Structure formats: C-alpha cells, structure tokens
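In the current project phase, the collection of sequences with tokenised folds has grown. A sample record is quoted in full directly below:
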Amino acid sequence: MKVVIRLDSHASFKYRKLKSKDKTCWNELKDYFTHENTQYMRNQRMGIPNTNEPEIYKTYELRNGRAYFARGGIRRVKKVLKRWGHTVKIKGRMIEGDKVNFKKKSNIKLREIQKQPCKIIVKKKQGILHGPCSSGKSVMGLKFIQDRGRRAIVVVWNKDHQKQWISEATSKKLMNMDKRDIGGVGGVFGKRKLGNLNICMQQSLWNEKHRDFFFPHCGTLVADEVQRFAARTCIEVVDASPAEGRIGVSANSKRKDGKEFLIYDTFGNVIHNIPDIGITTRRKSKITLVPSEYENSEYEDDGNHTDLLSDMARNKKRNKLIVNRTTRKTKKKKIVLIIVERKYQAMYLYDILKNKKKLKVKLLVGKTTKKELDEADDWKPSWKKMMKRYDDDKAFYEIKKLAKKKGFDVVITTKKGEVGLSVKIFDHGIITIPTGSNEERFNQQKGRIERDYDKRLEKLYGRKSTPTLDYIYDIKSEKLKRKGKNILKNFTNVNILQTKEGKNGKKRKRRRN
C-alpha cells in the first residue's frame, strides 16, 4: 500500500485505508506517539491532585480523515510503515520563508568546536543540538539562521534569554543586526512586531493569533533551552510552525518532569552533541565542599524545600560562613560571584559586604513587587527603599559594562544571573543553594565562572587563572548531605574542607581530596 505523507507543521496522511487494511501497523504507529505521563504517576504516589496533568500524552491527532503526527517523529513513521511493507512518498509543504540577507553585515566567526555542528544543522535542517555551557549555542543558532537566509523566529522561555539573543544578534562582533530589524512578542516587546529576526516568548506564542502573525513568514525556527519549555505549550507552539528549518538547542534533553518524549517528538533526534571535553580552552573549576553546621529538623520530617530555602537564607551562621569565604577570596584579589535563592539573603549579604567589609558589591536580582515589599516584615527600611528604585535591567547591563574594567569585587545574584550573565572575569563562585542533585542547574551555576577562555577574551579581560567554586555542604542533614555527595560522585577535582581539633583545642581547617 502506498502512503503519501504531507510534511508541513506535522507529518500527516489519510489514515482510514491503512487502519482497515493493516490494523497492526496502525496500532504500532499510534503506540509510538502515545506516552505515559511520569509526572502524573509521581503525583499519584505523593497524593498530589492531578488537575492539570493528563495520565497519557498523545503526540498525534485524528481529524478530517487525516492522522497528524508530531513532525519530529517523521523518521519513526516512515520506519514503521516500511517495516510492514508499505511504500512511502513525502510531499513537502513546509514554508521556506521570506528571503533575508543576514550575511551582508555579519561578523560571526566560529570557534573550532562550533564549525562541525553548524555544518550538520544546516544540512539536516531539523533536530536537536546539545552543547555544554559556554559552547556558544546561541551563536550557532544565529549562524544557522544566517546560513539559511530566511526570515526566522527564535522561541525562548524567559525574558533574560530574550534579551541575550537580542544583544548577540545586534553585537558588532556577531550578527551586527540593526535593532530595528528585530521583532518579537512578549517580554521586552510591548506590542508584537514582525522583523527579519523575531525573538518570541514561548508563553506569548501560546496565543494562536500571535502564531498566525509570525509563522507564515518564518522559514527558520530555533528553540532555545528546549528542556525548560512548559510541557503544556511545547508541542502546541513549536509543532504548529511549518518552518522548513526547525532546531532545538540545549545543554541536554533531560526534563525534571520526565517528559523528554515531547522534545524528541517535536524536534526529532539529537543530530549533534558537543562533548564537554571538546572545549579545550575552558578553565575547569576546582570545587570545594564547604561544611556548614546548619540543620533543620522540620525539613528532615516533611521535606518542605520552599520553607527550607527561606530558613537557610536567614540563618546567621550560614551567612557568616559565606561572608568569611568571600572576604578571604577578595583579599587575594579574586572577583566573586555569590548565587543565592532568596532576595532576603541577597540584601543581607549585600549590606554586610558593602557597608561593613567595604567591598565593591553589585546586586542582580529580579524585580520586587509592591506586594512582596509590603509582606517583607523582616526587611530593613533601607532595603525596601533600595528595591523600590531598583531596576534589574539596568543592573544587568551595568555589570556587563563594569566587567571589562573589573569595576567590582563581588556580584550577588539569584536565578536572574544563573543563565544570562555571561561575564568572563569571575575567579570564584559560591553556591549557597543545595542544588547538588540537580546536575543541570549545578552545571549552569558552575558555568558562570567556568567560561571558555581564548586569546581574544584574555585581551579583553586579562589572563584568567583556574577558577574555584565553593558549595555550601550542610553535613548535619542527611537529605542535604546527599546533594553534596552527588557532586563528589559526578565531578572530578572536588575537595572537602574539613575541620579537626588542633593541639591547643582550637579548630583548624584542612583539605582532603
């Protein structure tokens, strides 16, 4: 039997004849695109309501006599049909998009590790590109867009990523685009705008009217950090695009909710993976687990992570440890990045390090709403006054500007700086949050100081020594201690800073590999 597959936003064909003549083949096809929802099962075990979680995910749909399968699974569709003796014909109806000459002004120069991946994604047109932190995934995405020479859309999951893509697209050292030629929707765009390159928020593209506005013109689609996309909108947004070029870029495809099948069904296979060891110019960090005496019996009993983080942020002994480690490093002329989870802790550390220790400190946190300030009973009046006039966008670009002059000693940041803050001068990092079991997030945090460092960057920022990283290791809690042990298990070059009684009865510090 001959099956004609129409390839546009989906892979679709008339299914009724196949269903009646070869039911086994038809059922196998449906099984390939039917997935058990691991999050649903997890919620059931924990007694959490599954209000918004379906028990089964189907990445195919039947309507008007046609079966529509997620386009990333086209290879599986063909494989099943051919195995059961059917001939397959592909009719491409994908959109090539409006022609744009991105090369005219572009100054993109690829590093060696980027050249092969860029050739592969241009040739394959569809798939997933994996690359570790600092491999330059957004630069490769821009190169893919440039080489295709078609109006393009970039889908991002948060505003900081949107700003980063706009910054790199307009950078004179990269694509060198005129800002007026960049469009988008959501985030920094008050009103949607169609440009040659469109940086769009995933949440905004959930609106079908916005998709209809951009998709008919864009023949290239790049989705950034695909593993972070909300499951509910993943396929609805990306797989609605008939763009001929469809690439997802990320460090890896692992999702917290276990729904990796959404990524593979939407984009297809991993077509290239840049190994971490491939970045030969990177300065690998030396990690130190710094023991803390902190304990929280309530967390041991009920595992409430939210309350735990709030309690940690206010623990004076834990904060004193962070201050001591910071001042010790700054005395050695090191530039320090402190990553916290709560704004309270960011303000507390900022106050001590700036006012008492007389260090040049910069703060990078998200916006604070009036409601947050009203409910912040334990905040100092000076903190509230500062945060009322604080502009996170202004702070972000000020830090990037000051970095070239080494205009600060310390930067304290929340999640705001974990991804977009690509500053090359940090010598030391302090991770105050127990994230050791979340390897993806730990790698993102580690990547803020473990930047790729070549001769060009040395000229801009000066020579960089091997970076060091402290991870606050809460040894009094079995649950938290396991997170530190996970770092020991998965990473090389890790030390544990231990204390031992000296002869005079005082505690002294020693290192053990």
Remarks:
- The chain has three domains: 2-92, 112-278, 286-512.
- Residues 31 and 158 are 33 Å apart (CA to CA).
- The two ends are 65 Å apart (CA to CA).
- Confidence is low (pLDDT under 50) at residues 500-513.
